[in-house]
Design goal:
Blueprint lengths: L5 H8 L13 E2 L16 E4 L7 H11 L1 E6 L3 H7 L11 E4 L11 H6 L28 H12 L1 H12 L5 E5 L6 H12 L4 H9 L5 H9 L5 H6 L2 H4 L3 H15 L2 H7 L4 H12 L1
Parallel strand pairs: 2-5, 3-4, 3-5
Antiparallel strand pairs: 1-2
């Protein structure tokens, strides 16, 4: 089967992008091909960058037209508290769930970020609440993004599985999973979800790489915030851009070490029944 050109990939993804005023990287996981010749179903699971600056029109489109009824927030607790919970929080029909993929210390736990009624002030050094990520010796030679993604799986595998369980639950509408940029933490959870749905590795990597098409807009939005602005100024935009080769490598390592993403999920307690439920959400 000939490899798709960039032009072909862009044309196939056009219908999946959801253009909103308040985000730069929102798209539908529907329409992706599967191993058995089928396709994933639209308006079941969306992926996105930060939802804090959604406009009223954006909220109406997501909730009223697309039918979003659940938000899966992968940011750290400190990020949630600093940036706020966003306008979707005020919609009673939308459930919010929070699963941080970075190890944290202190009071700002997964439950606290969602349930605490008052948003306290955080110190300027809020990043100190995030514990250093450990890199396994056999992963030291991998590119930085690959090391980070393997770190999510090794250090916060419980949170990854909990996020997938939330996506697998029978929600009467669509779910949107997001982090800050919608490419790294979101990329890992989405990759595993698509693997469960039977989407080939190549297509998973293509979907991951699509965020690179809007990386300038993503970084512009992050640079305008007090939470992420300092970090985005330290590196050139190109260093943040997701590349298909990164996800290709992560999936290759999962194949070698766990007999694939499904093998990793099974070893971490996400069994056949839960896989079937998640597959049903994405496949109809």
């Amino acid at each position: 089967m000939p490899r798709r050109t960039v032009r072909d990939v862009s044309s196939l993804s056009d219908g999946r992008w959801i253009h909103l005023e308040g985000t730069a990287n929102t798209r539908d996981l529907g329409g992706l091909p599967t191993h058995d010749g089928g396709r994933t179903v639209p308006h079941r699971i969306l992926r996105s960058d930060n939802l804090q600056t959604l406009t009223d029109a954006d909220v109406q489109r997501l909730v009223g037209q697309i039918g979003v009824r659940e938000v899966i927030d992968l940011r750290t607790s400190a990020e949630v508290l600093l940036e706020g919970r966003g306008p979707l929080r005020s919609r009673p029909e939308v459930t919010h769930r929070h699963f941080t993929l970075l190890p944290e210390r202190g009071r700002y736990t997964d439950v606290f970020a969602v349930e605490e009624p008052e948003v306290p002030d955080l110190p300027s050094g809020w990043l100190e609440s995030i514990l250093p990520r450990q890199v396994a010796e056999h992963d030291q030679a991998e590119p930085p993004p690959v090391r980070s993604y393997l770190g999510y799986l090794s250090q916060r595998g419980d949170a990854v599985v909990q996020a997938l369980r939330a996506l697998a639950a029978p929600v009467p509408g669509a779910s949107v999973v997001h982090c800050a940029a919608g490419k790294d933490r979101t990329g890992v959870v989405v990759a595993l979800s698509l693997a469960v749905a039977g989407v080939p590795h190549e297509e998973i990597a293509i979907d991951y790489g699509l965020s690179g098409e809007v990386i300038d807009a993503i970084m512009e939005r992050l640079a305008a915030t007090r939470t992420y602005g300092g970090d985005t100024e330290k590196r050139e935009t190109a260093t943040h851009a997701p590349r298909r080769e990164t996800m290709d490598r992560v999936l290759q390592l999962l194949d070698e070490r766990y007999d694939g993403p499904i093998g990793w999920l099974e070893q971490h307690g996400f069994g056949a029944d839960e896989q079937a439920a998640l597959r049903a959400r994405l496949r109809g």
